[in-house]
Amino acid sequence: MCGSCGFPAAPGHWTEAGAATPHERLRERFRRVQVLQKVLDQSGVTAHDGGVIPGIQVMSLSGGQTIVPDLEALWAEVKKLSGQVFDPLDL
Questions:
Q1: Residue 77 within a domain
Q2: Which domain holds residue 28?
Q3: What strands lie across the sheet with 56-60, from one edge to the other?
Q4: CA 64, CA 59: separation in Å to the nearest integer?
């Protein structure tokens, strides 16, 4: 369990399946958030993964922020923070 946020340790995401070392797993987390930034660019919401906490920090331009445990929760939080329906497949 993370002392900062209270989330249990994440088992890993399927995109990290080829990562053999913790360093490679962390690199894959950073790569995933880079892709998320491109997808979220039009929504007014940003995503950040500092590699320290298990989860993704989601922030709106108005100052709202939260930590989500996975991508499924991220899309629901983007909808809540942006105030509009957001479908990543519509891009």
A1: yes
A2: 19-84
A3: 45-48, 56-60, 65-68
A4: 6
In this predicted structure, what is the pLDDT of residue 23?
Answer: 84
Backbone region of residue 70 per phi and psi (left: phi > 0; alpha: psi in -120 to 50; beta: other values):
beta
Q: Is 5 within the bounds of a domain?
A: no
Residue 91 lies in a domain: no
pTM value?
0.71
- Distance of alpha carbon 36 from alpha carbon 48, whole angstroms: 9
The pLDDT-based confidence of 67 (bands split at 50, 70, 90) is very high
pLDDT for 86 equals: 78
- The more confidently predicted of residues 9 and 71 is 71
